[in-house]
Amino acid sequence: MLKRKIEGVLKKWKDTEGHKPLIIKGCRQCGKTFSVRQFAQENYAHEIYLNFYENKSYASVFSGSLEVDHLTMLISALLGPEAIFEVGKTVVILDEIQECPEARTALKFFAMDGRYDVIGTGSLLGVKGYGKRPASIPVGYEQIEEMYPMDFEEFLWANGIQAPVIQYLAECLNNETPVAEALHEKLRQLLLQYAVVGGMPAVVQTFVDTHQMNTVLRLQRSILSDYEDDMVKYADDKDKPFIRECFQSIPRQLSKENKKFQYSVVKKGATASKFAGSLQWIEDAGIIRRCFNLSLPELPLDGNAIQDIFKVYMVDSGLLIAMLEDGTQFDVLQGNLYGYKGAIFENLAADILAKMGRKLYYFHKDSGLEIDFVIRYAGQSTLLEVKASTGNAKSAKTVLNHPEKYHVGGAIKLGDYNVGRAGQFLTLPFYMAFLLTAF
């Protein structure tokens, strides 16, 4: 059974006095339903489960009065003896709540009533053109948490790396001491495996159980196909012709030397006015993450972000590789990717950073100066250079050599290294990126 960090979020929510109904949002197939139901079964005497995607008729429960006593009467009549409402011991799970906007509105009534806990899950909450909007969003009566596909640390757990090992890695980072060689080599291999497998729970479980990469790839491409089906099924009619083209252009966008997202790469002659809504739809669905260019690489990063200059990365690195041709998995695992290797490892860094809840930023100037990522780390603006193997960091050196112009605290190089330091540069093995949690 895969261990997920959302379990801690759910436990903290339940233990908070006076907690509101909880919404878990995230891209399709990232494990929301499994995690929520497992939590319910372990922490409540009774679970009431309504899936609005699989059972469209359930929406009729919420078509009239939203008073809690009325709803519990209808739900118990619909589900029969299995639906037991006991004060303080029952949780109501409203799965794929975006399919029933009235159920989202009903969260206010459950919050005010307070007898039963309620958890909703949603995959396409708020995406433009979805067409099913609550008449009244219960602002102030719900708590929203975002869930991602499995991150690298969760992948390590799934592959038998336990808490003492991760604590040891954290100590190596804090003390800037090398990781023991045998462990270093094992984690290098696990990082490459994560790059191609990614974090979709069904894919990770298949990998852990079988290590058959052809099966992994088949599952990933099925997920990508489902995503594309959603784009056609749920988007505004005016955006439908463009969303899939936007999505399918991502590998080409990342192959460019300057990876800034360009609408002309989507389609010759394409403009932001025609395609911007399509890109926003894909981002709102939780499939991609933008990385904004900074006017200056200094704090506050969000205040220096240039909103119309950005890169686009897949939230899950395994899905990016599944979008490429057959044989790419083998190439990644062997380290034989030539020029495209940089794109894959940049996306891998974006995957790790985004799943930590970090916003993504980079720094590029027309003079050729470019920093892969800029993060807030230990209270300072910190340059983050990503190297597929090893390599210099010329742009970072330039920035660090001009403290009167660029107000940064230091630089980190992620690559095929062990832990070390040279002046303002901290070098880290790529697999330690997930430990950069000190904002």
Give the number of DSSP strands.
Answer: 14
Mean pLDDT: 94
Please state the CA-atom Rg, rounded to the nearest Å: 23 Å
- Unreliable segments (pLDDT under 50, ≥5 consecutive)? none
Class per helix and strand makeup: alpha/beta
Measured distance between first and last alpha carbons: 31 Å
Outline type: globular
**Spatial order of the strands forming the largest sheet:** 2-3-4-1-5
The largest pleated sheet is described as: 5 strands, parallel
Q: Helicity level, as a percent range?
A: 40-55%
Task: Give structural notes.
The protein is α/β, with parallel strands linked by helices and 439 residues long. It has helices spanning 6-15, 32-43, 68-79, 101-113, 152-158, 163-175, 181-197, 201-210, 213-234, 240-248, 250-255, 263-266, 272-284, 317-322, 328-334, 341-354, 394-400; strands spanning 22-25, 46-51, 90-95, 117-122, 143-146, 288-294, 305-314, 360-364, 370-371, 373-377, 380-386, 410-415, 420-422, 425-429. Helix 8 packs antiparallel against helix 9, helix 9 (213-234) packs antiparallel against helix 10 and helix 10 packs across helix 13 (272-284). It is globular.
Sum up the structure in keywords.
alpha/beta, 439 residues, 5-stranded parallel β-sheet, 5-stranded mixed β-sheet, single chain, 2 domains
Short description:
With 439 residues, this protein is an alpha/beta fold. Helix content is 41%, strand content 17%. The strands form 3 sheets. It has a 5-stranded parallel beta sheet, sandwiched between helices.
Write the layout of secondary structure elements.
Elements lengths: L5 H10 L6 E4 L6 H12 L2 E6 L16 H12 L10 E6 L5 H13 L3 E6 L20 E4 L5 H7 L4 H13 L5 H17 L3 H10 L2 H22 L5 H9 L1 H6 L7 H4 L5 H13 L3 E7 L10 E10 L2 H6 L5 H7 L6 H14 L5 E5 L5 E2 L1 E5 L2 E7 L7 H7 L9 E6 L4 E3 L2 E5 L10
Parallel strand pairs: 1-4, 1-5, 2-3, 3-4, 6-8, 11-12, 12-14
Antiparallel strand pairs: 6-7, 8-9, 10-11, 13-14
Helix pairs in contact: 8-9, 9-10, 10-13
